[in-house]
Amino acid sequence: MARLFGEQGSPSLAVSTIVFPFRRLLLAVAFFSAASVAQAQALKPFKDELFSYGKVLQQNDDGDDLTVDYQELRDINERDEIPERRVKRAYVSLGVKSEQVNETLDIGGRSLDVTRVGPDRGAAFTVIFIHGRGGDRRLGTNDFSFGGNFNRLKNLAVANGGVYYAPSVRSFDTSGAADIAGLVRQVSERSGGRPVVLACASMGSFICWGVSRDPSAVAALSGMMVMGGVSDPDFTKSAAFKAKLPMYFSHGSRDSVYPAESQKALYRTLKAQGYPTRFVLFESGSHGTPVRMTDWRDALNWIGRH
């Protein structure tokens, strides 16, 4: 994809811009199709041989702290037909586009443009992806950019009875966070309270952190993902922290926009308190690497188990 929606780490890029015991048991039952949560097989595979994490260089915390091998020559140049612009055809399945629509939703009297892939009512689960600065809903729905990773997410959602939303965020402030908090509540209501996962890339992480302060939105969420995002030093004061909302982080070790160590420090703080969290570091990866390389099935299944 062109530099407007590029992958390689300039602050101006689009990717520089997601009450348990009883509640979460219900969410886990809804998230998995197997009759027994303990024996659940989670989301059905989709091109796992192409998208699963490769060589694990290091792991700690019973696998919750992973360092994964990443090589630009292999993971961009050999994977893409046109580097950073168009992935090879083997990585995508385009039949899912028949389930894709653009629409404008009313969120508390404010309009919000979204692309939806999957049913607007009764979905088994919902994933919402938040782009970063300079982006819009097109970033999260382009089938061929970022190594085909969004196409895989679409297919995972539809094949498992879920729905995927990619909204156009108008601002990365309290108003923008309020819009997405309203979207979280709306899609939760439309699905009958089934799991909702909010995933935020880069500057979009400001939206995740803002939503984490909204108790009603947190109550509707089953997990949050932050990919190459800024760290929130006050997260431990949030409604999400109090609810122990599962947090899945992914980051490139050479991110020059938001340093990986800041996010890793938050992970360590949370893990030390027994908080459900996971951190995946792509060794030598840059700012856009997590959007390309995060294994959506791994992330969603991990959240579903917690």
Question: What report would you give on this structure?
Answer:
There is one protein chain. The protein is globular, with a radius of gyration of 17 Å. The strands form two sheets. A ten-stranded mixed sheet has the order 1-2-12-11-10-9-7-8-6-5, sandwiched between helices. The longest helix has 17 residues. With 306 residues, it is an alpha/beta fold.
**Strand composition percent:** 15-25%
Gyration radius, rounded: 17 Å
Helix amount: 25-40%
Q: What is the strand tally?
A: 12
**Tally of contiguous helical segments:** 11
Query: What profile does the largest beta sheet have?
Result: 10 strands, mixed
Query: What structural class do the secondary elements suggest?
Result: alpha/beta
Distance between the termini: 35 Å
Side-by-side strand order of the widest sheet = 1-2-12-11-10-9-7-8-6-5
Quaternary organization: single chain
| Average pLDDT over all residues | 90
Reading the helices and strands in chain order gives HHEEHEEEEEHEHEHHEHEHEHH
Give the low-confidence spans: 1-41
* Bulk shape: globular
